User: What shape does this take?
Amino acid sequence: MKKEHRIILDLLEEYLEKNPSLRFGQALFNLGVNQFQETTDPRNPNYNLRDIHNDHDLDIIERIKNQLIWFESQRSK
Assistant: This one.
């Protein structure tokens, strides 16, 4: 296992420990691992999942950390 894999798994584990009612797929989506495809027209949203096959592990780690920061900022409001 690569170091980046361990980081992703640890972040996911910590999030699921704090949110045990979530299903695994919900956690992946909430943390930004899976994402919807971009849309150029807000009147016509695209609800297809984006293929993350070519995303680097470091990009996924950054998305997860950004989501966790955003969640924390929402709690303090």
Remarks:
- Residues 3-37+47-75 form one domain.
